[in-house]
Amino acid sequence: MMHIKPCFWIRCCISLAVLSLATPVFSQFAYVANQFSNDVSGYTINATTGALTPIFGSSFVAGVFPVSVAVDPTGKFTYVANQFSNDVSGYTINATTGVLTPISGSPFAAGAAPNSVVVDPTGKFAYVANAHSGNVSGYMINAITGALTPISGSPFTAGAAPNSVVVDPTGKFAYVANANSGNVSGYTINAATGFLTPISGSPFTAGAAPNSVAVDPTGKFAYVANANSSNVSGYMINAITGFLTPISGSPFTAGFFPVSVAVDPTGKFAYVANANSGNVSGYMINATTGVLTPISRSPFAAGAAPLSVVVHPAGAFVYVANNGSANVSGYTINATTGALTLIFGSPFAARAGPRSVTTSPRPR
Q1: Which pLDDT value is given to residue 361?
Q2: Domain ranges in the chain?
Q3: pLDDT, tens digit, for every residue of 195-249?
Q4: What is d(CA 60, CA 196) in angstroms, rounded to the nearest whole number?
Q5: Calpha distance 363→341 (Å, rounded)
Q6: Nearest to 71 by CA among 331, 347, 318, 310
Q7: Domain 6-359 architecture
Q8: Which residues have a Cβ under 8 Å from the Cβ of 240 and sit 6 or more positions away?
C-alpha cells in the first residue's frame, strides 16, 4: 500500500478532447509525460487497432518532473507542466510524423509546482494549476507559433493544492480540483481575454483529496476523482452560470486512491484510474441525471500505479499511464457496454514514471 501526499499523486491535466473547425489534422498521436526521466514519449495511434508505435526520435526533452501533458484542439501544439522546474514546456507537432519541436521562448514560467495544464476548446487560452502557490496561471496562445503570454490578471486564486484544471466544452467555464481543501473552484472565462472570474457559490464541496476533474462532452455534468475517499463526486452544471449541484447518489464508489477521471466523447461512459488498486473503474452515465452505474466486469486491470486515463477522441480506445510499471495500457471500448478489452501488444513501453497521457484530436 502506498502512502503518498495527494499533491504528488495525481492525474493531471486529464482534459476532454474537444473537436474544432480549425486546421485539419492528418495523423493522430499519443503523448506521455514521464516524470522521472524528464521527457515526453510520443506514439502514433493505429486507427484500427489502437496500438501505439513509438514516434521516430521519441522521447522528447521536457523540464524537471513533467507531470501533465495536453494537446491543443488544432493538433498543432503540445504543452507539458514541469512540477519541479515551475514552468511549462511548449512544442509544435509535426502533423505527419508527430515529432515535437520546442516552441521559441519555451519553457514558459508558471507558479510553484504546476501540476496540470489544459487548453481551452477554442485553442486561444491555456491554464495551469499550480499546487504549491494555490492558484491558476492563464496564458494567451499565439495561433501561429504556440508561444504563451500571461493573461492580464494571472495568476488567479484557487484553493489549497490545486491539482487539476479543466475547461468545459463550450469554453465558458473552468474548474479546478483542490486536493488539500477538498473542493472544486469554478470560474467563468472571458471569451476575449481568457480572464477567470470565480463563479458565485464557488468553491464547491468535493470528497477527500480531489485530484482530477472532467466535464462530459455535452457540458451538463462534471466528475471529480477523490483520492483519499476512494470515490467520484458528480455534479450537474448550470449552463448559464456554471454553478455545480451534486448529482443524486453522489459520490459514487471507485477503487483505492482514484486519481484520474475521463469521459468518453459520446458522453456514455466515464473511466477512473485507481492508483493504489492498479485498475480502472468504468461507469455508464445516465444522460438525463448524470448518475454513474458500474459497467459489467469493472474494474479493469491496469499496470502498477495507474495515474492518468484518457479516452481516444474517436471514442474507440482508452489509454492509461502506469507510473509504477513504466508503460501505457491500451484498451478497446465496447460501444454498447463500455467494457474495456486490452489492445494486442498492450502495455506499451514508456520511459521512467509515466504520469500523464493524452492524445491529439481526431483526424478529419
Answers
A1: 86
A2: 6-359
A3: 999 999 999 999 999 999 999 999 999 999 999 999 999 999 999 999 999 999 9
A4: 32
A5: 23
A6: 310
A7: 7 Propeller (2.130)
A8: none
